[in-house]
């Protein structure tokens, strides 16, 4: 090993300086920084030790020009204010960084104009691949990225575009467990608050719910199936529509946890209790669901599974000799907490005349 040069505080710390400090070639430093798997582990360790001691910050743009790769993955979500997505972003970033990638995050808010801006931003930054976690409008994005051969992954809707993959959520598994849970408790009248029905995922959850009712031998009352918008306010408004009906269900299932928390608030305002007056089940199992009062029974769709499988699928497209993963299944399962219980006697399921829905 070459003798370690004395550090000149006036000299710019660049890749040449790191190479001299580590006693390796510039090419070895470059391959180590780009995490090329064929680099000798001992040499790579020396490079990273020098990087740490010199506090060297690699020029990622320069590396991208040399390697032709930005080492940047795009992550597009629909609603950054929904707690589900920050949890997903955190896990996606953790997994990507472990594999030597950084991430570029964007939110669409379901706005077509903003979607165009987001797509252009991703293309300008030359992302190596993009995960489209919008639960809707994905094909628009996929076409843009496919046009210049950028791998993409989307939730729920299979794409015919090359270098694209799909994460298929098994909604029926968790929803069936939830319906069966309520049926065992004695519920026969179950309502459902959907997400925005222009979204593929919202349609899929509603269809799966209806299929589960049918397979469980339970009736589907149309007036108890209300379209929501996956927000707190939407959940409260949808529940108030149910409370305005002449007859109530004994249990409410929701297309996401934010809707369910909004339902809890509507029932609190109406001086009704969960689960004594209504049993309630959400979907997603966001961290906040454990801290509602009472803690929310919900259907778990793992952010960890989504993030890990999204990153793994994207990277499979980027391996020159790899076999791309075109589809991965995301399981769901029921998490029982304290918002479900046995229904009241049948005569109390009709709306009491003395109570008024707000």
TrEMBL record:
Residues 337-358 are annotated as: Disordered. GO terms for molecular function: DNA-binding transcription factor activity; transcription cis-regulatory region binding. Keywords: DNA-binding, Transcription, Transcription regulation. Residues 18-67 form the HTH lacI-type domain. It holds the Pfam family LacI. Residues 337-349 have a biased composition (Polar residues). The keyword Transcription applies. This is Transcriptional regulator, LacI family. The keyword Transcription applies.
């Amino acid at each position: 090993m070459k003798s370690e040069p004395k550090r000149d505080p006036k000299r710019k710390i660049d890749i040449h300086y790191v190479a001299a400090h580590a006693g390796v070639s510039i090419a070895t430093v470059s391959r180590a920084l780009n995490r090329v798997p064929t680099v000798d582990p001992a040499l790579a360790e020396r490079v990273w030790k020098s990087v740490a001691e010199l506090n060297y910050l690699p020029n990622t743009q320069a590396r991208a020009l040399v390697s032709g790769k930005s080492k940047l993955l795009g992550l597009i979500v629909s609603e950054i204010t929904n707690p589900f997505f920050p949890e997903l972003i955190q896990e996606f970033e953790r997994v990507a960084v472990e594999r030597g990638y950084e991430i570029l995050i964007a939110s669409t808010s379901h706005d077509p104009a903003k979607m165009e801006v987001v797509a252009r931003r991703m293309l300008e930054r030359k992302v190596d691949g993009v995960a489209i976690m919008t639960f809707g409008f994905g094909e628009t994005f996929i076409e843009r990225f496919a046009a210049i051969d950028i791998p993409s992954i989307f939730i729920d809707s299979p794409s015919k575009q090359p270098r694209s993959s799909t994460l298929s959520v098994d909604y029926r598994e968790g929803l069936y467990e939830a319906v069966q849970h309520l049926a065992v408790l004695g519920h026969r009248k179950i309502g459902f608050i959907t997400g925005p029905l222009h979204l593929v995922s919202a349609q899929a959850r509603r269809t799966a719910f209806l299929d589960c009712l049918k397979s469980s031998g339970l009736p589907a009352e149309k007036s108890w199936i209300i379209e929501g918008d996956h927000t707190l306010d939407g959940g409260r408004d949808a529940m108030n529509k149910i409370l305005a009906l002449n007859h109530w269900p004994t249990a409410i299932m929701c297309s996401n946890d934010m809707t369910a928390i909004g339902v809890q608030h509507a029932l609190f305002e109406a001086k009704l209790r969960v689960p004594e007056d209504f049993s309630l089940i959400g979907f997603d199992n966001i961290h906040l669901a454990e801290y509602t009062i009472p803690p929310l029974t919900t259907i778990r769709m793992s952010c960890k599974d989504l993030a890990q499988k999204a990153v793994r699928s994207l990277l499979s497209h980027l391996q020159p000799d790899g076999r791309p993963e075109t589809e991965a299944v995301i399981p769901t399962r029921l998490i029982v907490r304290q918002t479900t219980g046995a229904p009241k006697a049948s005569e109390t399921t009709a709306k009491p005349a003395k109570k008024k829905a707000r």
